[in-house]
Amino acid sequence: MTSYRLQTGGLIDRQTPVSFTFDGKRMLGFEGDSLASALLANGRQLIGRSFKYHRPRGILTAGSAEPNALMTIGRGGRTEANTRATMQELYQGLEAKSQSRWPSLEFDIGALNTLLSPFLGAGFYYKTFMWPAPLWEKLYEPFIRKAAGLGKATYEADPDTYEKCWAHCDLLIIGSGPTGIAAALTSGRSGARVILVDEHSASGGSLLSETASIGDVSASVFVQQAMDELHSLSNVQILTRTTAFGWYDGNVFGAVERVQKQVALPNVALPVERLWRIVAKKALLASGAEERPLVFGGNDIPGVMMATAMRTYLNRYGVAPGKDVAIFTTNNSGYALANDLEARGIVPVAIIDSRPDGNSAYAGKARVINGAFVSDAHGGKALSSVSIFKSGIAETIKVDALAMSGGFSPVIHLACHRGGKPIWSDEQSAFLAPNGLKGMELAGAVATTVGIAACLEDGANRAAALIEGLGFKTSPASFGTVERDIVSPAAKPVWNIPGIKGKAFVDYQNDVHREDLGIAVQEGYGHVELAKRYTTNGMATDQGKLSNVNAIGLLAQARGVSPAEVGTTTFRPFYTPVSFGALTGAYHGEHFQPVRKSPLHGWAKKNGAIFVETGLWYRSSWFTRDGETTWRESVDREVRNVRVNAGLCDVSMLGKIEICGKDAAEFLNRVYSNAFLKLPVGKARYGLMLREDGMIYDDGTTSRLSEQRFFMTTTTAYAAGVMNHLEFCAQALWPDLDVHIASSTDQWAQMAVAGPKARLILQTVVDEDISNEAFPFLGAKEVSLFGGQLHGRLLRISFSGELAFELAVPASYGESVADALMEAGRNHGIQPYGVEALSVLRIEKGHVTHNEINGTVVPADLGFGKMVSSTKGDFIGKAMVAREGLTSSERPQLVGVIPLDPNTSFRSGSHILEKNAAARLENDQGYVTSSAFSPHLRSTIGLALVKRGSERHDEEVMIWNGIRNEFTPGRLCNPVFVDPENEKLHV
Amino acid sequence: MASLVPCPHCGARPKEEFTIKGAALARPTPDAGTEAWMDYVYLRDNPRGLYEEYWHHTSGCRRWLVVTRDTATHDIEHSRDVALSQLTDIRP
Amino acid sequence: MRYSALSLLLNGLRGNKTWLPAWRQPEPKPHYDVIIVGGGGHGLATAYYLAKEFGVTNVAVLEKGYIGSGNVGRNTTIIRSNYLLEGNNPFYELSMKLWEGLEQDFNFNAMVSQRGVLNLFHSDAQRDAYTRRGNAMRLHGVDADLLDRAAVRQMLPFLDYDNARFPIQGGLLQKRGGTVRHDAVAWGYARGADMRGVDIIQNCEVTCIRHQNGVVTGVETTKGFIGCGKLGLAAAGNSSRVAEMAGLKLPIESHVLQAFVSEGLKPFINGVVTFGAGHFYVSQSDKGGLVFGGDIDGYNSYAQRGNLATVEHVAEAGKAMIPSLSRVRVLRSWGGIMDMSMDGSPIIDRTHLDNLYLNAGWCYGGFKATPASGFCFAHLLARGTPQETATAFRLDRFTRGLMLDEKGQGAQPNLH
Question: Which residues have C-beta within 8 Å of that of residue C216, sequence separation ≥ 6?
Fold first, then answer.
């Protein structure tokens, strides 16, 4: 006989049948079923196979600790492997598939592993598969990997959405069983902000499986009434289907809400899961206790189930586990089940109680065998009988279901997430939460309170105390009398059951059985952490919720010490596994990172820009024209046009910082390595910013707009970093300086107008005289535009080496000004140019960027030795820049590099070798930092950092790009390829 | 680590809003000598316990703070605005 | 006892009752020629090579907890030798070569699996940086291949090529990179060292380093005073604390790095893949779990636990790289304490005290370095001179301005 649905009872809606499939077979359940209860109701007990031995497995629990009933549900991008059938609510059309079996669940080839099990004990793989060595990767490992894993992940993207949010509360209550409900009522009535979370689909916890009554009503009606009241309180937020998975510092809890995991087709307006970060002034952990399995032979055969789980299926789902049910218990939990079974007409065939005195209060009809053990369960894909061991006498009883209860472990996981170690209690036969938790208290079964009445009281009292501590006035909620309360005090644990013949499993999913733990101890892996790592006990998807305490008990006995001495492994997040989707929220795909667009983005776009991701920015890379088929054609044209006519380039992404105050000049003098104190008003200066270790941090120009006002530009990549750095200098290092700093990157649209005709074009929009005499190279001033309609800043600086200006205008005017300049320049041949052309132009001119400023160069390496002031008293980097390693003549220095044959080419990242040197690392001379095709020289050119480079101009070298098999004879040269005398800058 | 960091200006704010620089050490004078500068730039007490660090409230008030934090428990004892506290020292 | 298929068979037939302990549980002797502080991967490897390669067998490894309880027991198991700088690259390649023969050498299957390490790049600048790195590797005879987008796509069809914020352009592949079963490395070295006479003493915390006239003489421990000829510190994560006992202040900060494992899945990711547009790297274990991680949390810490914000960042980057991870569930997160050095590179050197030697500062790269670190530290301890691939890992390199900064981030550990 198998499990079946009873005619009546349960909190299911028998008017609403729900159709679903399991391994392709259509089945019916009811609204309110879990996938597990529906399978049981359909008589389905074999639901999966184990990982190593492929043993037939059944449903063991009714909750999140389930190690066996893992299934793949959904299809396409919604495919979800390893879903716990016990936690998955049934929905119309749900498709579930079993895992870890081939070719089918009923007939699984992998089950042959059982025959080899004597040779597959703990850690067997560490002792073999070593010869011959190449076979590990060619044969053994592929074979192991083929067998590895549980469910199969999809390759398809998830079509659904996720979100994240913060919540703040006075009291977070975790768990909505009797303790949590009493706490919520108590605190909710006080007006405090309360959040009540529960991992299950409905509030009520164990009360939903209870046959007790509270006051005059059944437990489930009590829950309904309490929840109605809580829902009516606007200060109480109730989150069901929400698992608090981690307790983090600052009393922040991570929780995940399964918003739409119980529906076939999610509403697109809602996420399927929501990540909560809950900031709680206080938290009350009311997570209850987890029943422990017993370790006897065949304790994994389908039909063996936890006693409380069997009770839940019976009472909440109206599902009977079988006709001939036996109960193996070490405590009174088994008797609660016996009473409930009897009430539903199923008198247990036997109650096997490990205690010599059993439970004298039991008045039911079942045969009770005290002082006895189930040594073995028998059966293959279904349970057929159990062997009972009592004082050396064995008896076998035919059964089709067996419930077991080895006592209870408080669910203390969250309480241990912040470093506290659990404490073993002999009295409770359990590990209890660490002492002295900050911000968290425990109540109810997790604090070893037993019985509904006691939990209600404990929850109410503890919540009242916590809330009063926060300044709220309240009194503990009180409740009516509890009838048929089950008070199951802790009983002596039974680790080693006598008379076992079969395999007795400790960790079901990982197939760790008790002999494995014995081997671990024997071989020196007896420390609980080593035993875990050696046997894999506790490393399955349930993270040892059912197995760890039994393993500790067995280790303790094998080592001859107490469980306290063995101790636990570390409880770490996540309490139950959390999806990438939930942790990610909306930040994936194109929304992985925010997008920054220049105020000139629209201008660039309408001019045909091809954009490229640069940090968060989209920058215009080049501007395609009709007839151009390759990017190089466009870039070459843009470069030539700048050198011949004029070009307009969007440089708005440069960091822009306003620096004002009486001491602004002194401040700049300290943050730059070169002098800034005497920079005249109306002038710009190139500046080098070092780190304290003497390396160059960033470069840029800073202009003095008035005596106490400066305008700094930084590189795009380091804009944010430089801003933070300047604030650090101003606030932490020199708070006595009168200086004020503000980022204005987003406030200005900035465009470079470069080329021989730049002045002609600019003069049409700039009101002031910008002739060479009136506004010479490195001039910087605020200008009036369009006859005074607009004001901007004009800098006469050049990255290209041509006559060039940078014009900054308020961001919102950027596009119109760029349009006007394009219009004004039309007859002068102006063209937009992008960062690719900008890069070619600067390489031609030998200007450096962060390709060269790579974090390991000092100013002298780049030929900026003179920019390290020897006269200034102090500046960032001064103290460290003179160390021997940073002044060595062997250091890499900036050089130019060209191919000997202009028809050949090379790439950035190539290394430089001496002409005839062997390609060995010790012969490495440096590398190409930047390279481009120069239309000006009609050759590829590059910049390189080469040992003693400045002395080696004209040396022939090998430009070595072994990774692409490109070897280009080249020559080192002056890094300035265009206008080395800087004549063009001053026209 | 503290998921929330107390900012003297903004109150408790998520850690993600901050940038951490590291040990809150006093910058030596320019002529303090090699040893003092080595100590400042490279050597760290790295204590297990209370530690003073520079944190920048980057996505908030943009002030640099000295955060006193326990490296073993992650508890934050205190935070102060570095400039304001120094100025107070200078001009009580 | 030698491990082999035959030993499995014979012991299996005897009901697995005849396995011998993998290592002894000795009480400390009063004096050793060499004491290693720290029974992690590096400390055990040092002891192993001291005994096996340098003939120094009167050695004790002192471990305050259980062996392998530090970072060798909580890392993401990656091995690679894709280093850039001349001071680093040959050392890590030595390590790779040692990995390649390790299991036969110490008779323990640590599942050294060279399934490849692929670093994705998403921009021209990253491509150029990887070209430079790949060439540096090639120059030292290390395997390196530059893959274009199509080749990456063929290898890993499930990455996001079409909707990505930072489209994948290609990747730098080291085929000989891969993963190793991390705990087994500690166990293999421990067993190999023990077999050769090394005493591995667990639950023995060093509380004081004794020295006289500038010469180290021994250590006070929770099991009493133990004298030594030479003392080697290999206590990553706690290096500053241990060094402080000898009055030594290090260029090191302790930081927490988190790592993660997902529920078991049928293997679909063969090697190691690192994302270039965010902090995320992943491999899949022989058990089926995705093993992954990201950046350090960013603050000094001795608590082996991390921050939720970092967890989220890692997951975001993961799903950005592999959209179909969305419904994969993360099983467990953990945190390890890293010795983050001031230039991102390690230290293997003598110290200001005679007979005191330091092995520290491995940042998050310590696991892959285990064999070479042990070998080179053993070399230094036994011969007094640095092994030829480890000459740059000097303690005075900061004073002298000879930093080994692969990332160019300078003296700020949380940026390395």
Answer: C209, C210, C228, C230, C231, C246, C353, C354, C355, C356
A981/chain B closest Cα distance in angstroms: 37
- Asked whether the beta carbons of residue C300 and residue B51 sit closer than 8 angstroms, the reply is yes
Mutation choice for C interface testing from B44, B45, B66, B74 by most C CBs within 10 A: B44
| Tally of domains in chain B | 1
Q: Which domain holds residue B68?
A: 1-26+34-41+49-92
CB-CB neighbors (< 8 A) of A692 in chain B: 40-41
- Provide the 8-state DSSP code for A188: H
Which amino acid makes up residue A162?
Y
The CATH number that applies at residue A513 is 1.10.10
A833/A942 same-domain check: no
Diameter over CA atoms, chain C: 67
The architecture in CATH of the region C113-176+254-340 reads 2-Layer Sandwich (3.30)
Query: Does any CB of chain A come closer than 8 Å to the CB of residue B19?
Result: yes
DSSP single-letter state for residue A504? B
Query: Residue A575 domain-assigned?
Result: no
Q: Which two tokens stand for residue A464?
A: 């009242």
CATH label of the domain that carries residue A983: 2.40.30.110
Residues A424 and A562 in one domain: no
Angle CA A323–A329–A331, to nearest 5: 135
Question: What does the alpha-carbon distance between residue B32 and residue A692 come to, in Å, rounded to a whole number?
Answer: 14
Tokens of A892: 């890499």
Q: Is the dihedral of CA A223, A228, A231, A234 positive or negative?
A: negative
A688-740: per-residue pLDDT in tens?
Answer: 999 999 999 999 999 999 999 999 999 999 999 999 999 999 999 999 999 99
Q: Which of 43-82 (B) contact C at CB < 8 A?
A: 43-48, 51, 53, 69, 71-74
**H or E segment to which residue A687 belongs:** strand A683-690
Q: How far is A810 from chain B (nearest CA, A)?
A: 24
Whether the Cβ atoms of residue C252 and residue A68 lie closer than 8 Å to each other = no
The pLDDT of residue A707 is 97
Class of domain C26-81+83-108+182-252+343-399: alpha beta
pLDDT at position B2, please?
Answer: 56
Predicted confidence (pLDDT) per residue in A77-110, tens digit: 999 999 999 999 999 999 999 998 888 888 888 8
Q: Let me know how many helices (H) and strands (E) chain A has, helices first.
A: 21, 54
pTM for this structure? 0.97
CB A694 within 8 A of CB A634: no
Task: Test C253 with B21 for CB contact under 8 angstroms.
Answer: no
Residues of chain C neighbouring B41 (CB-CB closer than 8 A): 342, 398, 411
Q: Which residues of chain C have pLDDT under 50?
A: none
The parent domain of residue A802 ranges over: 647-841
Amino acid at B35: E
Q: Which amino acid is present at C299?
A: Y
3-state secondary structure A26-40: EEEEEECCEHHHHHH
Q: Is B54 within 8 Å of A732 when comparing Cβ atoms?
A: yes
| β-bridge partners, A423 | A432
| Stronger pLDDT, B2 or A444, i.e. the higher one | A444
The amino acid present at C279, given as its one-letter code, is: H
User: Could you identify the residue written with the tokens 């509360």?
Assistant: A169
Asked whether residue A444 is assigned to any structural domain, the reply reads yes
Say if A276 falls within a structural domain. yes
Q: Nearest chain C residue to A910 by CA: give it.
A: C132
CA A755 and chain centroid, separation: 49
Mean pLDDT of A879-900: 96
Q: Considering its fold, how many domains does chain A have in total?
A: 4
Residue of B nearest to C303 (CA): B72
| Residue B88's pLDDT band (cuts 50, 70, 90) | low
For tokens 């005839």, the residue is A916
Using the beta-carbon criterion (under 8 Å), do A736 and B2 form an inter-chain contact? no
- Partner-chain residue, chosen from C115, C137, C264, that has the shortest CB–CB distance to A541: C264
